[in-house]
Structures are given as C-alpha cells and as structure tokens.
C-alpha cells in the first residue's frame, strides 16, 4: 500500500483522465495492488508517463524542478 509520503504534492497524477487532488484516493486504490505494481507505480511517480496499474489508466507529470548553480 502507498503512503502519503510516497506521493509528492507537486506531482500531477491523472487516473482515468481525471486529476487526482486527494492522496487518499490513490492510497485506497493501492490496497489491491501487488508489490510489483506498487513498486512500478512509485517508479513512475518519479519518472512520469502513461501506464495501466490495477485496471486503471494513469498519466503522471512529475515536477522536474531543476535548480541551476549559476
């Protein structure tokens, strides 16, 4: 099961075409996932992209906040 800390607040997550604003929705969805699906989802949170997990379609846009040292 996912935790609130594993879902970054600045990452935009769409499930079945709808933007998810409440982390509890994703936590409830993750209760039925296998360990492999959960691990894949966490990877995709960092990386971003389109994929299916647990019969749902996800589209994740990570926050690529790259600070330069200039």
Structure description:
This protein is 30% helix and 26% strand. The chain is of the alpha+beta class and 70 residues long. Strands 2-1-4-3 form a four-stranded antiparallel β-sheet, with helices on one face. The model has no long low-confidence stretch (mean pLDDT 90).
Describe the structure in brief:
It contains 2 helices and 4 strands. It is an alpha+beta fold.
List the helices and strands and how they pair.
Layout: E1 12-15, E2 18-20, H1 23-30, H2 35-47, E3 49-53, E4 56-61
Antiparallel strand pairs: 1-2, 1-4, 3-4
The main β sheet shows up as: 4 strands, antiparallel
Number of strands: 4
Distance between the termini: 40 Å
* Percent helix range: 25-40%
Number of domains: 1
This entry's quaternary arrangement is single chain
Can you tell me the residue ranges where pLDDT is under 50 for at least 5 consecutive residues? none
If you compute it from the alpha carbons, what radius of gyration comes out, rounded to the nearest whole angstrom?
Answer: 12 Å
Mean pLDDT: 90
Strand order of the largest sheet: 2-1-4-3
Shape: globular
The structural class is: alpha+beta
Secondary-structure element sequence? Answer: EEHHEE
């Amino acid at each position: 099961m996912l935790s609130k800390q594993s879902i970054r607040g600045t990452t935009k997550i769409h499930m079945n075409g709808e933007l998810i604003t409440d982390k509890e929705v994703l936590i409830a969805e993750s209760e039925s996932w296998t360990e492999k699906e959960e691990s894949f989802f966490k990877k995709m949170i960092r990386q971003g992209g389109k994929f299916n997990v647990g019969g749902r379609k996800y589209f994740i846009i990570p926050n690529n906040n790259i600070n330069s040292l200039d």
